[in-house]
Amino acid sequence: MTMWNPWRGCRKCSDGCLHCYIHKGDAKRQVNTNDIVKTKDFYKPKRRQKNGSYKMKGGLVYLCFSTDFLIEEGDKWRKEVWSMIKERSDCTFLFLTKRIERFKDCLPADWNDGYENVVVCCTIENQKNADRKLSIFKELPIRHKCITAQPLLERINIEKYLDGIKLVVVGGESDINARPLDYDWVLDLREQCIRKNVSFNFRQCGTHFIKDGRQYAIPTRMLISQARKANIDFKASI
To answer: Confidence band (pLDDT; 50, 70, 90) for 22?
Structure first.
C-alpha cells in the first residue's frame, strides 16, 4: 500500500467529522489541523532512482488520506498533482472526499469522462448527506466510483444511487465518545448492494457496537478484525 499526501491539514465540514482521527492525532502532537500546507512528499510520484526508474512503485496509491483532495486550499497545487497522476499511468490513485460538490471545479482541462487511473470515493454518514452528496455524485463524469459510509451514523437507503458504483465500504466510529454503529444498519446496506450487484465491504465495527439490541464496547485494535469475522463482504458478479 502506497500513501501520497501532497498536502496535509483539513477542516471539519460534515457530520462524520466529529471525532476525526486526523484532528485527534494532530492535537496530541500539538499541530493545528486547520493549517493546510504542502508537504515534503509533494513530488513523490516523480522522484526517480539513479537508474531512472520511479522510486514510488506502481499499483494502488491512497491519495490525500490525511486531508481532502478537493479542499479549497489545495486549488493552487492541484493542477500539478493532476499532471503527476496522468504521468503515472502505472498507478491507480484513490481518494476519498467529503466535498464532492467541488469536484467539477477541481478538474484538469483534459478530464473528459475521467482518467482511467483515478478512483473517486464519496463519503457519507447519514441520510441527509447521502441524499445531498450522492445526487451530485451520480451525475459526475468519473470512470471508477465508490462510496464510503464511515462512520455510519444511522440506517440509510442509498439503493437508488448505486448505479455505476463499484464498491460500498461501511464502518463505525473509533473513539471513546464514538457514536454507536448498529449491525442492522450494516446488514441493510449490504442487502441494498446485493440487489444492485455492487461489491460491499464491512471495513470495521464501531467502538460502541450494537448487535441484536445489545451494545458492546470493542477495543480499537479489534475493530477491523471483528468486522472480518462477520464474513459478510460481497463481491459483485461481472
So the answer is: confident
Smallest CA-to-CA distance from 67 within 24, 108, 89, 96 is with 96
How many Å separate Cα 217 from the centre of its chain? Answer: 25
Q: Under DSSP, is residue 54 helix (H, G, I), strand (E, B) or coil? A: strand
Number of residues that this document lists for the chain: 238
| Bridge partners of residue 144, in order along the sequence | 119
Which residues, including other chains, have CB under 8 Å from residue 191's CB and lie 6 or more apart? none
By mean pLDDT, which of 11-15, 124-128, 145-149, 230-234 is the weakest?
11-15
What is the CA 136 to chain-centroid distance, rounded?
16
Q: Are 34 and 105 in contact (CB under 8 A)?
A: no
CB atoms within 10 A of CB 180: 16
> Cα–Cα distance between 120 and 132 in angstroms, integer?
17
Three cell numbers, residue 23: 484532528
Distance CA 63, CA 28 (A): 23
What confidence score (pLDDT) does residue 19 get? 82
